[in-house]
Structure formats: structure tokens, C-alpha cells
Amino acid sequence: MAEMPAGHEGQGFFATTLDSVIGLARKNSIWPLPFATSCCGIEFMATMGATYDLARFGSERVGFSPRQCDLLMVMGTIAKKMGPVVKQVYLQMAEPRWVIAVGACASSGGIFDTYSVLQGIDQVVPVDVYVPGCPPRPEAILDGVMRIQDLIGKESLRRRNSEQYKALLESYGIQ
Length: 175
Ligand code: SF4
Hints:
- Helix 1 (about 20-25) packs antiparallel against helix 5 (about 140-155) and helix 2 (about 40-50) crosses helix 5 (about 140-155).
- By secondary structure, the chain is an alpha/beta fold.
- Helix 2 links the parallel strand 3 and strand 4 (about 70-75).
- It is built from 6 helices and 6 strands.
- It has a single domain, classed as Rossmann fold, CATH 3.40.50.12280.
């Protein structure tokens, strides 16, 4: 059951802000795009299974079309050659969009401190939440999704039009 946003209530009415209502709807209907390249992806499969059941958070509808998803979940080692592909997928997602780096490899390159591995996907796309672990257990992935839910629920509708957000995207070469 979703928590009711803060507001004013009386007999027969409840008033709150538009930001809160839209945040409530968005945070409980996240459509993830699993970008899984290696072992962390297996933990995500467990997270989707009956025991952990990501559907409890309204996120059972995973999609493989970026245009129909709003949460990019990058799970696994990302080679430098794959970096532009991650960015392309991110660019094809409509705003508002969020990103989770799941596991040490996606967050920092993990144990692969080598010439060929991207040392964190935040070198190519802005990341909202990092999930630690090698691999993170399904509980940790669920925790990452809950952190994203917190961010989404509290996000102002104006954030995506703000100068700070535009500057963030420009720092990644995104207009
Ligand atoms: S963080 Fe560990 S488990 Fe996850 S993809 Fe990298 S090596 Fe595999």
C-alpha cells in the first residue's frame, strides 16, 4: 500500500500538491530497462523472481525498448566499447528518466582496473543511485530501487527544466 502524501484533509476532501500526486504515481510505476552484461544480471533475475518479487514495488514491467522505460538499470561490467551503447540507450529514453548503477563493475569498474573496462558508468551518463556489492544481493537491488523511489517521489516537476539539470546533461555532452 502506497503512503499518502502530506496534505490537508477534512470531511470529504483531501488537498495536496501536484508535485506530490505525480511523484506518488511515478514512484509506484517505474518501468525498468535491465541493461545486464554479466553476473550482476543474474542477481537481477533473482530479484524479479517470486521470493524477492520486484512487482511489489510496481516495477514488474521490465522493458527492452528504451522509449517505454524510465529507469535504466546497468548491471555488470561495461567495456569502454560498450560505453557509447549505454549512452545511446539513455538518450533514447524519454524524460523523466533515472539511472541505477548496480554492483561494483557498473559503479566503478569493480575488480577490472584494466585498459578495456569503463571505470564507472557515470563517465558516460548521470547516475542517480549506486548499489554496492560484487554481486549485490537481491535485497541490495531492492534497496536501490527503494532509494530511487524516494528520489522520484520527492522530485520537483520543475527539476528537468532547471538550469542545474541542463548543466548536468551538458557536462555529459547531452543537449
Ligand atoms: S560487480 Fe561482481 S558480480 Fe557484478 S558484474 Fe562485476 S564482477 Fe560480476
